[in-house]
Amino acid sequence: MRHPYVFPACVAGALLVAGCAPKQTDEETVERAFQDVNVVDETNLSEVMLTVTDPNEAISYYQRTLKSDPDRLDLRRGLATSFVRAKRFTEAASAWEKVTELKDSTHEDSVNYADALIRSGDWDTAEKVLDTVPPTYETFKRYRLEAMMADANKEWRKADSFYETAIGLTTTPAGAFNNWGYSKLTRGDFSGAEKLFGQAIRQDPTLFTAKNNLVLARSAQRKYTLPVVPMTQSERAQLLHTMALSAVRQGDIQTSKSLLRDAIDTHPQHFDAAVRALEALERSG
Protein backbone atom coordinates (compact mmCIF):
# COMPACT_ATOMS: atom_id res chain seq x y z
CA MET A 1 0.00 0.00 0.00
CA ARG A 2 1.37 3.42 -0.95
CA HIS A 3 1.54 6.43 1.39
CA PRO A 4 1.15 9.49 -0.83
CA TYR A 5 1.64 12.01 1.97
CA VAL A 6 5.00 10.80 3.28
CA PHE A 7 7.18 12.75 0.83
CA PRO A 8 5.38 16.10 1.25
CA ALA A 9 5.53 15.64 5.01
CA CYS A 10 9.26 15.06 4.90
CA VAL A 11 9.72 18.13 2.74
CA ALA A 12 7.64 20.19 5.15
CA GLY A 13 9.69 18.91 8.07
CA ALA A 14 12.91 19.80 6.31
CA LEU A 15 11.65 23.29 5.57
CA LEU A 16 10.61 23.74 9.19
CA VAL A 17 14.09 22.75 10.43
CA ALA A 18 15.68 25.04 7.83
CA GLY A 19 13.52 27.85 9.08
CA CYS A 20 15.11 27.53 12.53
CA ALA A 21 18.65 27.91 11.17
CA PRO A 22 20.38 31.27 10.77
CA LYS A 23 19.31 32.93 7.55
CA GLN A 24 21.71 32.54 4.61
CA THR A 25 21.67 34.33 1.29
CA ASP A 26 21.15 32.34 -1.88
CA GLU A 27 24.71 33.16 -2.93
CA GLU A 28 26.16 31.71 0.30
CA THR A 29 24.11 28.54 -0.05
CA VAL A 30 25.23 28.00 -3.62
CA GLU A 31 28.88 28.75 -2.78
CA ARG A 32 28.85 26.25 0.11
CA ALA A 33 27.33 23.59 -2.13
CA PHE A 34 30.08 24.06 -4.71
CA GLN A 35 32.77 23.92 -2.01
CA ASP A 36 31.46 20.59 -0.82
CA VAL A 37 31.40 19.22 -4.36
CA ASN A 38 34.93 20.47 -5.00
CA VAL A 39 36.28 18.65 -1.93
CA VAL A 40 34.79 15.37 -3.14
CA ASP A 41 36.03 15.95 -6.69
CA GLU A 42 39.55 16.81 -5.50
CA THR A 43 39.71 13.69 -3.34
CA ASN A 44 38.67 11.45 -6.22
CA LEU A 45 40.98 13.21 -8.65
CA SER A 46 43.87 12.86 -6.22
CA GLU A 47 43.31 9.10 -6.05
CA VAL A 48 43.33 8.94 -9.85
CA MET A 49 46.54 10.96 -9.99
CA LEU A 50 48.29 8.44 -7.74
CA THR A 51 47.37 5.43 -9.84
CA VAL A 52 46.65 5.73 -13.54
CA THR A 53 48.07 9.01 -14.80
CA ASP A 54 51.52 10.01 -16.01
CA PRO A 55 53.38 10.88 -12.77
CA ASN A 56 54.61 14.14 -14.31
CA GLU A 57 51.01 15.16 -14.97
CA ALA A 58 50.23 14.31 -11.34
CA ILE A 59 53.13 16.49 -10.20
CA SER A 60 51.74 19.44 -12.16
CA TYR A 61 48.28 18.86 -10.69
CA TYR A 62 49.53 18.74 -7.10
CA GLN A 63 51.81 21.76 -7.52
CA ARG A 64 48.94 23.76 -8.99
CA THR A 65 46.46 22.70 -6.30
CA LEU A 66 48.89 23.34 -3.44
CA LYS A 67 49.15 27.01 -4.38
CA SER A 68 45.70 27.59 -2.92
CA ASP A 69 46.04 25.15 -0.02
CA PRO A 70 49.77 24.69 0.82
CA ASP A 71 49.25 22.94 4.17
CA ARG A 72 46.92 20.19 3.00
CA LEU A 73 48.61 16.97 4.04
CA ASP A 74 47.06 14.64 1.48
CA LEU A 75 48.14 16.91 -1.37
CA ARG A 76 51.69 17.14 0.00
CA ARG A 77 51.83 13.34 0.21
CA GLY A 78 50.46 13.05 -3.31
CA LEU A 79 53.12 15.37 -4.67
CA ALA A 80 55.93 13.51 -2.89
CA THR A 81 54.63 10.12 -4.05
CA SER A 82 54.35 11.38 -7.62
CA PHE A 83 57.96 12.57 -7.59
CA VAL A 84 58.99 9.04 -6.56
CA ARG A 85 56.84 7.52 -9.32
CA ALA A 86 58.51 9.85 -11.82
CA LYS A 87 61.94 8.79 -10.49
CA ARG A 88 62.72 12.40 -9.60
CA PHE A 89 64.20 11.32 -6.30
CA THR A 90 65.96 14.52 -5.19
CA GLU A 91 62.71 16.44 -5.56
CA ALA A 92 60.86 13.56 -3.88
CA ALA A 93 63.13 13.80 -0.84
CA SER A 94 62.48 17.54 -0.58
CA ALA A 95 58.73 16.98 -0.93
CA TRP A 96 58.66 14.27 1.75
CA GLU A 97 60.68 16.51 4.07
CA LYS A 98 57.92 19.13 3.78
CA VAL A 99 55.34 16.45 4.58
CA THR A 100 57.17 15.51 7.80
CA GLU A 101 57.16 19.15 8.88
CA LEU A 102 53.35 19.33 8.91
CA LYS A 103 51.55 18.96 12.22
CA ASP A 104 49.65 15.74 11.48
CA SER A 105 52.46 13.86 9.73
CA THR A 106 53.11 10.27 10.82
CA HIS A 107 55.98 7.84 11.29
CA GLU A 108 55.10 6.39 7.88
CA ASP A 109 55.82 9.80 6.35
CA SER A 110 59.28 9.76 7.95
CA VAL A 111 59.93 6.28 6.55
CA ASN A 112 58.87 7.47 3.10
CA TYR A 113 61.20 10.46 3.50
CA ALA A 114 64.09 8.13 4.34
CA ASP A 115 63.22 5.95 1.35
CA ALA A 116 63.38 8.96 -0.99
CA LEU A 117 66.70 10.02 0.52
CA ILE A 118 68.19 6.58 -0.09
CA ARG A 119 66.92 6.62 -3.68
CA SER A 120 68.57 10.02 -4.18
CA GLY A 121 71.85 8.74 -2.70
CA ASP A 122 71.76 10.71 0.56
CA TRP A 123 72.41 7.78 2.90
CA ASP A 124 73.69 9.87 5.81
CA THR A 125 70.52 11.95 6.09
CA ALA A 126 68.38 8.86 5.55
CA GLU A 127 70.05 7.18 8.52
CA LYS A 128 69.34 10.21 10.72
CA VAL A 129 65.69 10.24 9.65
CA LEU A 130 65.28 6.51 10.35
CA ASP A 131 66.79 7.04 13.81
CA THR A 132 63.89 9.40 14.63
CA VAL A 133 61.35 6.62 14.03
CA PRO A 134 60.65 4.79 17.31
CA PRO A 135 61.46 1.05 17.41
CA THR A 136 57.83 0.34 18.24
CA TYR A 137 56.86 1.38 14.70
CA GLU A 138 57.27 -1.95 12.92
CA THR A 139 56.46 -2.16 9.21
CA PHE A 140 57.92 -4.07 6.28
CA LYS A 141 59.15 -0.89 4.59
CA ARG A 142 60.82 0.43 7.72
CA TYR A 143 62.78 -2.80 8.29
CA ARG A 144 63.66 -3.18 4.62
CA LEU A 145 65.21 0.29 4.72
CA GLU A 146 66.99 -0.55 7.99
CA ALA A 147 68.42 -3.66 6.32
CA MET A 148 69.64 -1.65 3.35
CA MET A 149 71.21 0.89 5.69
CA ALA A 150 72.98 -1.87 7.62
CA ASP A 151 74.24 -3.27 4.31
CA ALA A 152 75.63 0.13 3.34
CA ASN A 153 77.43 0.30 6.70
CA LYS A 154 78.65 -3.32 6.32
CA GLU A 155 76.91 -4.27 9.56
CA TRP A 156 76.12 -7.75 8.34
CA ARG A 157 74.54 -9.19 11.50
CA LYS A 158 72.17 -6.26 11.76
CA ALA A 159 71.36 -6.53 8.07
CA ASP A 160 70.48 -10.22 8.39
CA SER A 161 68.28 -9.50 11.41
CA PHE A 162 66.46 -6.65 9.67
CA TYR A 163 65.89 -8.65 6.47
CA GLU A 164 64.49 -11.54 8.48
CA THR A 165 62.14 -9.21 10.37
CA ALA A 166 61.03 -7.46 7.17
CA ILE A 167 60.18 -10.76 5.47
CA GLY A 168 58.00 -11.70 8.43
CA LEU A 169 55.97 -8.52 7.97
CA THR A 170 54.89 -8.98 4.35
CA THR A 171 52.87 -11.43 2.30
CA THR A 172 55.01 -10.70 -0.78
CA PRO A 173 58.61 -11.23 0.36
CA ALA A 174 60.20 -12.03 -3.02
CA GLY A 175 61.85 -8.64 -3.38
CA ALA A 176 63.21 -8.73 0.16
CA PHE A 177 64.64 -12.23 -0.37
CA ASN A 178 66.30 -10.97 -3.55
CA ASN A 179 67.80 -7.96 -1.74
CA TRP A 180 69.02 -10.16 1.09
CA GLY A 181 70.55 -12.55 -1.42
CA TYR A 182 72.34 -9.69 -3.15
CA SER A 183 73.66 -8.59 0.24
CA LYS A 184 75.12 -12.08 0.73
CA LEU A 185 76.52 -12.00 -2.79
CA THR A 186 78.43 -8.78 -2.15
CA ARG A 187 79.88 -10.29 1.04
CA GLY A 188 81.19 -13.31 -0.86
CA ASP A 189 78.73 -15.73 0.77
CA PHE A 190 77.78 -17.31 -2.55
CA SER A 191 76.05 -20.43 -1.21
CA GLY A 192 73.98 -18.31 1.20
CA ALA A 193 73.07 -15.98 -1.66
CA GLU A 194 72.07 -18.93 -3.84
CA LYS A 195 69.59 -20.16 -1.23
CA LEU A 196 68.01 -16.73 -0.79
CA PHE A 197 67.63 -16.15 -4.54
CA GLY A 198 65.96 -19.55 -4.74
CA GLN A 199 63.54 -18.45 -2.02
CA ALA A 200 62.78 -15.27 -3.96
CA ILE A 201 61.96 -17.24 -7.10
CA ARG A 202 59.74 -19.65 -5.20
CA GLN A 203 57.79 -16.66 -3.91
CA ASP A 204 57.62 -15.04 -7.36
CA PRO A 205 58.55 -17.26 -10.33
CA THR A 206 58.38 -14.23 -12.67
CA LEU A 207 61.14 -12.28 -10.87
CA PHE A 208 63.87 -12.31 -13.51
CA THR A 209 66.28 -10.23 -11.42
CA ALA A 210 66.39 -13.02 -8.84
CA LYS A 211 66.97 -15.60 -11.58
CA ASN A 212 69.86 -13.57 -12.96
CA ASN A 213 71.32 -13.12 -9.48
CA LEU A 214 70.96 -16.83 -8.81
CA VAL A 215 73.04 -17.57 -11.91
CA LEU A 216 75.69 -15.09 -10.69
CA ALA A 217 75.84 -16.80 -7.29
CA ARG A 218 76.15 -20.25 -8.88
CA SER A 219 78.75 -19.09 -11.40
CA ALA A 220 80.86 -17.62 -8.60
CA GLN A 221 81.04 -21.21 -7.32
CA ARG A 222 81.82 -22.45 -10.85
CA LYS A 223 78.42 -24.10 -11.18
CA TYR A 224 77.94 -23.60 -14.91
CA THR A 225 74.56 -25.27 -15.28
CA LEU A 226 71.25 -23.47 -15.25
CA PRO A 227 69.19 -23.88 -12.06
CA VAL A 228 65.89 -25.71 -12.25
CA VAL A 229 63.55 -22.70 -12.13
CA PRO A 230 60.70 -21.59 -14.40
CA MET A 231 62.02 -19.62 -17.38
CA THR A 232 61.00 -18.66 -20.89
CA GLN A 233 63.20 -19.38 -23.90
CA SER A 234 64.37 -15.76 -23.98
CA GLU A 235 65.14 -15.84 -20.26
CA ARG A 236 67.08 -19.06 -20.72
CA ALA A 237 69.25 -17.43 -23.38
CA GLN A 238 69.83 -14.34 -21.23
CA LEU A 239 70.79 -16.46 -18.22
CA LEU A 240 73.25 -18.45 -20.33
CA HIS A 241 74.74 -15.13 -21.44
CA THR A 242 75.06 -14.00 -17.80
CA MET A 243 76.72 -17.30 -16.92
CA ALA A 244 79.14 -16.93 -19.83
CA LEU A 245 80.24 -13.47 -18.73
CA SER A 246 80.73 -14.76 -15.18
CA ALA A 247 82.87 -17.60 -16.54
CA VAL A 248 85.11 -15.04 -18.27
CA ARG A 249 85.65 -13.25 -14.97
CA GLN A 250 86.60 -16.58 -13.43
CA GLY A 251 89.09 -17.20 -16.23
CA ASP A 252 87.09 -20.11 -17.69
CA ILE A 253 87.29 -18.92 -21.31
CA GLN A 254 86.40 -22.17 -23.10
CA THR A 255 83.37 -22.67 -20.86
CA SER A 256 82.31 -19.10 -21.62
CA LYS A 257 82.52 -19.71 -25.39
CA SER A 258 80.39 -22.83 -25.08
CA LEU A 259 77.78 -21.02 -23.00
CA LEU A 260 77.63 -18.13 -25.47
CA ARG A 261 77.04 -20.54 -28.35
CA ASP A 262 74.20 -22.13 -26.35
CA ALA A 263 72.76 -18.68 -25.65
CA ILE A 264 72.83 -17.74 -29.35
CA ASP A 265 71.20 -21.04 -30.37
CA THR A 266 68.57 -20.80 -27.61
CA HIS A 267 67.38 -17.23 -28.14
CA PRO A 268 64.24 -17.07 -30.31
CA GLN A 269 65.63 -14.00 -32.08
CA HIS A 270 69.07 -12.70 -33.01
CA PHE A 271 71.03 -12.31 -29.76
CA ASP A 272 73.40 -9.49 -30.67
CA ALA A 273 75.06 -9.11 -27.24
CA ALA A 274 76.00 -12.80 -27.11
CA VAL A 275 77.23 -12.77 -30.73
CA ARG A 276 79.50 -9.79 -30.06
CA ALA A 277 80.85 -11.36 -26.85
CA LEU A 278 81.63 -14.62 -28.61
CA GLU A 279 83.37 -12.82 -31.50
CA ALA A 280 85.50 -10.84 -29.02
CA LEU A 281 86.55 -14.01 -27.20
CA GLU A 282 87.43 -15.81 -30.42
CA ARG A 283 89.50 -12.85 -31.65
CA SER A 284 91.43 -12.84 -28.38
CA GLY A 285 92.21 -16.52 -28.82
Describe this structure in words.
The chain is mainly alpha-helical and 285 residues long. It has a domain at 232-285. Helices cover 72% and strands 0% of the residues. It starts with 5 loop residues before the first helix and ends with a helix. Mean pLDDT is 87; it is low at 1-24 and 29-40. Pfam families: TPR_16.
Instruction: Provide the β-strand percentage band.
Output: under 5%
Oligomeric composition of the shown chains: single chain
Largest sheet: none
Secondary-structure element string? HHHHHHHHHHHHHHH
According to DSSP, the number of beta strands is: 0
Helix-strand makeup class: mainly alpha
- Share in helix: over 70%
pLDDT under 50 segments (min length 5)? 1-24, 29-40
Describe the structure in brief:
The protein has a domain of 54 residues. It has 15 helices and no strands.
Relevant terms:
mainly alpha; 285 residues; single chain
Topology:
Blueprint lengths: L5 H15 L5 H24 L5 H12 L6 H13 L3 H12 L6 H13 L3 H9 L8 H13 L3 H12 L6 H14 L2 H14 L4 H12 L13 H17 L3 H14 L5 H12 L2
Helix pairs in contact: 3-4, 4-5, 5-6, 6-7, 7-8, 8-9, 8-10, 9-10, 10-11, 10-12, 11-12, 12-13, 13-14, 14-15
